[in-house]
Design goal:
globular; alpha+beta; 8 helices; 6-stranded antiparallel β-sheet; 25 strands; 5-stranded antiparallel β-sheet
Amino acid sequence: MQNTTFTKWVACWGNATSITDRKEAVYAKDLTLRYPIRVVFSGSKLRFRFSNLTGTEDVTISKAFVATTDGDYVPAKITLNGKDELLLPAGKEITSDEIPLQIQAGQTIEVSMYFAGFAQMNAGTIVTGPLSKGQYAYGDFAGQKEFPQNLSRATNCFYFLNTVDIFTKEQNHALVCFGDSITAQSWPDHLAQRAWDKGFHDVAIIRRAVCGTRILRQYDCITYAAYGLKGETRFPIELNVAGASAVIIQHGINDIIHPVGTEVNKFRPWSDLPTASEMEKGVEDFYISHARKLGLKVWSGTLLPIFGWRTYAPFRDELRNEFNNWLRTSDKFDGCVDFDKAVRNPQKPESFADGFDSGDHLHPSEAAYKAMADAVPEELL
């Protein structure tokens, strides 16, 4: 590869960073984390954003490595200001030094981090999908090809590693998928696989999703802290994506289904229930206006059926339909990905189609996530 063909930085992988679930144990020590990432672009160097955005204490990554998984396993150190230790200040994100590494499109890299001392594990997010896997091991195995099986387990919680950028060709770009638990699950991975299989090799799918988040509200109690930051706070941070060309926004169902009244749940008052116009204004003020400043195209994503969900009520579905109608018809967007139409039952549109309900009547099945990915127009790829 000739470095002269590479002209710009583009994000090739990314997740959001949020508050992790407040369990009894919130610290780890002598821990190695490893995340495999398929890189869809060729390039000559990488840089890594690490996030302690929701942490309340500084975290030190004792050492970090990146290595390609094919051929000889030769880990390259990830450094910060020339130092092996990477200090992640509380509430901040940092970007590593540029790491020279020749990457061919389609290769998989592994990013490994070792934490020798106690680290507050308060910055991460849970994501699932065929391309979203991780491992952890107790002990220092960051520079080794294999983790010992008896000391390691799989994880779908992605801590601290927030974005990977590659120095690549001018035509390459990133498509951002912004949302909540629906987007934290499989459809962005299936979209990435679809793009690759169909020969769209100049687009990376960047997921910015946090389970439970709302456009207009957030929880400040530890019971629901993992539901993350509200849209006004999240969006400007998460849209820091090198080489982004467009964003698909599929967000708002939690604004509709969360409020139940303080007599049922003291943290979920009825006053949190928005009107459709309030949700629309939130999307315009928080999302569209900022995306336009970044020069991005903005596509809406309709909200999925909720019939049978534990807080379902007809008035919630009426609110969802009113909001969806705006998402489909507003001239504020460059287009609409009609996820609702892709997964609903045509004879009973408030419900999922047969085989498309995961069982909780809110989250789609794996087949439905594939249908959502297929609903994204090729012009976005």
